[in-house]
Amino acid sequence: MVQLIIVDDYKKMSERAKDIIVHQIDKKPETVLGLATGGTPIGTYKELIHANGENTVDFSKVSTINLDEYIGLDEEHPKSYRYFMKNELFLHINIDEANTYVPKGTCEDLDKECRRYESLIEDIGPPDLQLLGIGENGHIGFNEPGSSMESETHVVELTPSTRTANARFFNTKEEVPTHAITMGIRSIMKSERILLLASGKRKRKAIARLLEGEVDVNFPASILMNHPNVTLILDKEAYGVEEGNDA
Ligand code: PGA
């Protein structure tokens, strides 16, 4: 079942996402959260940090499993996703960092790391709630168009469009790593509930295609429509509602 929530803007999207996550942790203090990086969830993380500061949510028993990591960037690299998660969330809430998991992008044996991560998802997870953004090309995690819908954690080569989209986080496009480790589509689909966020005109085409509801291997997010419990929180710009019209 897909639940669609349309809100005015990025701030409202982030607040609604925070409310759903807080409610989930209230219901189950040892919740396993699947987490994402990128521009989209930063506002949600800010809201969660605020809620934690006000003691309205307790992360002490929560575990987190992140979707992906760039290959070649170690945990201390400011553009690595482990670093992002530490700075945008983990350092500012009462989570035990030992209970936070991000794939390691600098392992010698990347296949082994993929297998380790997938068994970790089995052992600790699957996530009760998986937070997702969506790429302009429909990727989820780093599952790029054409990825197998049956994939588990694996190494991917990033498409030029993803490297261009992510260049805004680096000094130049050339600095964006060419490969990443990502949870696979099958790994993501194991989550109990999926919460996908999208904000801004940049995402409008991808959202329109997602809402068409047709599963297409060239548009990986489309598989989510087959998941039994998906919530989409979209702001008006991503949904395509013109200013002044009701959602
Ligand atoms: P963004 O990325 O949140 O930075 O837009 C989303 C994604 O690529 O999955």
Structure description:
- The protein contains eight helices and ten strands.
- It has helices at residues 10-27, 42-53, 81-88, 110-124, 160-166, 185-189, 204-212, 236-239; strands spanning 2-7, 32-35, 63-66, 68-70, 100-101, 129-132, 154-157, 179-182, 193-198, 230-235.
- It has a seven-stranded parallel sheet with strand order 1-10-9-6-2-3-5. The protein has a three-stranded antiparallel sheet with strand order 4-8-7, covered by helices on one side.
- Helix 2 (42-53) links the parallel strand 2 (32-35) and strand 3 (63-66).
- It starts with a strand and ends in an 8-residue tail after the last helix.
- Residues 38-40, 133-135, 139 line the site of 2-phosphoglycolic acid (PGA).
- 2-phosphoglycolic acid binds at residues 38-40, 133-135, 139.
